[in-house]
UniProtKB/TrEMBL annotation:
GO terms for cellular component: endosome; Golgi membrane; trans-Golgi network. This is Methyltransferase. It is a single-pass type II membrane protein; Single-pass membrane protein. It is found in: Endomembrane system; Golgi apparatus membrane; Membrane.
C-alpha cells in the first residue's frame, strides 16, 4: 500500500511510501499518526492514541488473507483490468447531485418544489471522483469543531455578512467561528435552550430525539448535544450557501431538505420534540399541511416549538416589516390547526410558543366528528419516500385506556437504547420478536468490538460523523453510543423490513434513502461509513459503481469504510475501489476463516483539486 503526502498549504511535503507487512493494525497505526488536522498539523488525537507504539498483534485470531476456499482465485484474470476513475472538474467540489442548483431552477418555485430532491438522469450522472478543495484539512475534533471550522473546507463568507448581527458565524483569519447565536437567539443557544427547558423536560432523558426545521448552521442542535438530545437538522440548499455543510463540518447531524410537497423522510412518531426558529415555513398555509406533517413525525406527548414570526406580532410587526393584519391571520391559522390536531398550548412568552401533542385519541373527544378533521386513509404512516403530503391528520395508534401512550411508552435515555422498543413488543415489525431483537444487539456488540480491534481510531474521537448505510434495527449505532460521535442510520427504501421507527424509539436518529440515488448531503461530510449487506441488497437494482462513487463523494479524505458482506460481493467491491484511490484490506469474519461473510476495510487517500490529475468531467 502506498500513501502520498500532498502540499495543501504552500509548504512542500515529501512524497512518502509506506509498506505495511505486519497486518492491518500497523496500517491504521501509521494512518492515525499521519492524518491531517487543523492547518496541516499532525492529528493530535490519533497521536495520543498511538504514541505508545503500534501493537500489531491485537487481532491474532484474525487471518488477514481471505481464506474462502478459492473463490478469489477463481476471478477471471482476463477481466481483472483495473478501471481507474479520474477526478471531476474542480467546479464540482461541492456537488450535490439531487440538489443541484442549476437543475433546481428548471422546476416550479411554488411550494418549494424546486428545492426538493431532483436527481440527475442516468446520462447526466458524473462518473468521476469529486475533489476536495485545495487546502482541505481534517476538521477539528469534537467539541472544538462545534465552534471552529477551517475556512478551506467550506470557503463561503456570505453568511458572515448576512447574519453578522445574529451571531451565526464569524470569519477569523483561516477559520470560521460559530459563537452559538441564531436569528432568534443572538445571545447564544444555551440561554435559549434553558428557556425551553423551563417547559420541556430536556434535562432528564425524556426528550432525546429532536427535529430542527430550517436549521441554519444547526447551532440549536449543536448545543443540545451536551444535554444528551440529538437533533436531526435540515435546511435547503438555497441562497444561504453551505449552511448544512457548515453544520456537518461542525460535527452536527444535518441533511439537505425542505418542507415542500413531499413527506419528510422519517417515520411516524419519531421525534420527542420539533423546532422552528424563524425557519420561514408558512405554517398557516395550504390548509395546515405542514403542521400536519410535523404532527405525523411527532411522538404522542412530544413538543413543538415555534420561535419568531408570527408569535408576538403585536409588538414586532414593525421590526419584521410585515402588515400586522397578515401576521395576525397567520397566527390565527396556526392556532386553528394546532387545535384541530388536538395540541395543547403550554407556553407563550416573548417570541416563543410551545405546544404539546396529546398522548392518545382519548384526549381529543369529539375530534372524529369534527367536519374539519380529515384523517389520513393510508394505513402505513411510514410509507413516505417521494410520497406527496396530504392535508390530513395521521391517526393515533389504538390504546385501551385514557392514560396509555399511543404507540407505547418509551424509557428515558440512555436506558431506551437497549430497552425493547414498543414497535417490537407490539409485533409491528414482521419477523422480529423480542428474542430476535436481543440477539441482534448481542451480535452487533460482537461485530463492533471486532471493528475496534481492527481500527483503534474508532473510539478515539477521530471519527465524528458516522453513517450506517443499512442500519437494520440500529445495533451498530447502539454499540457505538458515545458523546464523541453520532451515527446517521439509513434504512434503505428497498429493505425487507421497515425498521426506522424502531431506531428512533431507541433514541437514535436516521433517515430513509434509496442508494440508487445520491444522498442529501454535501461532499466530504462523513468520517466513517459502515456498509453491511448493502451490495447484496442492491444487486441487480442499480450499478454498484454508482453506489461506490456516491460513498466516495460523501466520505472525507482519509475517512474509512467498513464493508461487511459475502466474500464474492466484496471481491467485486474491492476491484472497483482499487481504481478510486482507496487503500483496502480484506479481513476474516471474527468467528474465523470458514464463515463466508467477510470484512473489507478501506481508507480514502488524501488528494485535493489542482493536483497532477487529469479531469474528464
Amino acid at each position: 500500500m502506498a500513501m502520498k503526502a500532498n502540499s495543501t498549504d504552500g509548504r512542500t511535503r515529501s512524497s512518502i511510501q509506506i509498506f505495511i507487512v505486519v497486518g492491518l493494525c500497523c496500517f491504521f497505526y501509521i494512518l492515525g499518526a499521519w492524518q491531517r488536522s487543523g492547518f496541516g498539523k499532525g492529528d493530535g488525537i490519533a497521536m495520543e492514541i498511538t504514541k505508545g507504539g503500534a501493537d500489531c498483534n491485537i487481532v491474532p485470531n484474525l487471518n488477514f488473507e481471505t481464506h474462502h476456499g478459492g473463490e478469489a482465485g477463481s476471478v477471471d484474470e482476463s477481466e481483472s483490468k483495473l478501471k481507474v476513475f479520474e477526478p471531476c472538474d474542480p467546479r464540482h467540489t461541492d456537488y450535490t447531485p439531487c440538489q443541484d442548483q442549476m437543475r433546481a431552477m428548471t422546476f416550479p418555485r411554488e411550494n418549494m418544489i424546486y428545492r426538493e430532491r431532483h436527481c440527475p438522469p442516468e446520462q447526466e450522472k458524473l462518473h468521476c471522483l469529486i475533489p476536495a478543495p485545495k487546502g482541505y484539512v481534517t476538521p477539528f475534533p469534537w467539541p472544538k469543531s462545534r465552534d471552529y471550522v477551517p475556512f478551506a473546507n467550506a470557503p463561503y463568507k456570505s453568511l458572515t455578512v448576512e447574519k453578522a448581527v445574529q451571531n451565526w458565524i464569524q470569519y477569523e483569519g483561516n477559520v470560521f467561528r460559530f459563537p452559538g447565536g441564531g436569528t432568534q437567539f443572538p445571545h447564544g443557544a444555551d440561554k435559549y435552550i434553558d428557556q425551553l427547558a423551563s417547559v420541556i423536560p430536556i434535562e432528564n432523558g425524556t426528550v432525546r430525539t429532536a427535529l430542527d426545521t430550517g436549521c441554519g448552521v444547526a447551532s440549536w442542535g449543536a448545543y443540545l448535544l451536551s444535554r444528551d438530545v440529538i437533533a436531526m437538522s435540515f435546511a435547503p440548499r438555497d441562497s444561504h450557501e453551505a449552511q448544512v455543510q457548515f453544520a456537518l463540518e461542525r460535527g452536527v447531524p444535518a441533511v439537505i431538505g425542505v418542507l415542500g410537497t413531499i413527506k419528510l423522510p422519517y417515520p411516524s412518531r419519531a421525534f420527542d420534540m420539533a423546532h422552528c426558529s424563524r425557519c420561514l415555513i408558512p405554517w398557516g398555509a395550504n390548509d395546515g399541511i405542514y403542521l400536519m406533517e410535523v404532527d405525523r413525525v411527532l411522538r404522542p406527548g412530544g413538543y413543538w416549538v415555534l420561535s419568531g414570526p408570527p408569535i408576538n406580532w403585536k409588538n414586532n410587526y414593525k421590526a419584521w416589516q410585515r402588515p400586522k393584519e397578515e401576521l395576525q391571520e397567520e397566527q390565527r391559522r396556526i392556532e386553528e390547526t394546532a387545535k384541530l390536531l388536538c395540541w395543547e398550548k403550554k407556553y407563550e412568552k416573548g417570541e416563543i410558543a410551545i405546544w404539546r401533542k396529546r398522548l392518545n385519541a382519548y384526549s381529543c373527544p369529539g375530534r372524529q366528528d369534527d367536519s374539519q378533521a380529515t384523517f389520513c386513509k393510508s394505513v402505513e404512516g411510514d410509507d413516505v419516500w417521494y410520497k406527496k403530503m396530504e392535508p390530513c391528520i395521521t391517526p393515533y395508534p389504538d390504546v385501551s385506556s385514557p392514560d396509555e401512550v399511543a404507540g407505547g411508552e418509551i424509557k428515558s435515555f440512555p436506558e431506551r437504547v437497549y430497552s425493547v422498543p414498543p414497535r417490537i413488543t407490539s409485533g409491528s415489525i414482521p419477523g422480529v420478536s423480542v428474542e430476535t431483537y436481543q440477539e441482534e444487539n448481542s451480535k452487533w456488540k460482537k461485530h463492533v468490538n471486532a471493528y475496534k480491534r481492527i481500527n483503534k481510531l474508532i473510539d478515539s474521537g477521530r471519527y465524528r460523523n458516522i453513517m450506517d448505510m443499512n442500519a437494520g434495527l440500529g445495533g451498530f449505532a447502539a454499540a457505538l453510543v458515545s458523546p464523541k460521535l453520532w451515527v446517521m442510520n439509513v434504512v434503505p427504501t428497498i429493505a425487507e423490513k421497515n425498521t426506522l421507527g424502531v431506531i428512533y424509539e431507541r433514541g437514535l436518529i436516521g433517515i430513509y434513502h434509496d442508494w440508487c440515488e445520491a444522498f442529501s448531503t454535501y461532499p466530504r461530510t462523513y468520517d466513517l461509513i459502515h456498509a453491511h449487506g448493502v451490495f447484496h441488497l442492491y444487486k441487480d437494482k442499480c450499478n454498484a459503481e454508482d453506489i461506490l462513487l456516491e460513498m466516495d463523494r460523501i466520505l472525507r479524505p482519509e475517512g474509512a469504510v467498513i464493508f461487511r458482506d459475502e466474500v464474492d460481493v466484496l471481491i467485486k467491491v474491492k476491484k472497483i475501489v482499487g481504481g478510486m484511490r482507496w487503500d483496502t484490506k480484506m479481513v476474516d469474519h471474527e468467528d474465523g476463516p470458514l464463515v463466508p461473510e467477510k470484512i473489507l476495510i478501506a481508507v480514502k487517500q488524501y488528494w485535493v483539486a489542482g493536483g497532477n490529475y487529469t479531469s474528464t468531467q
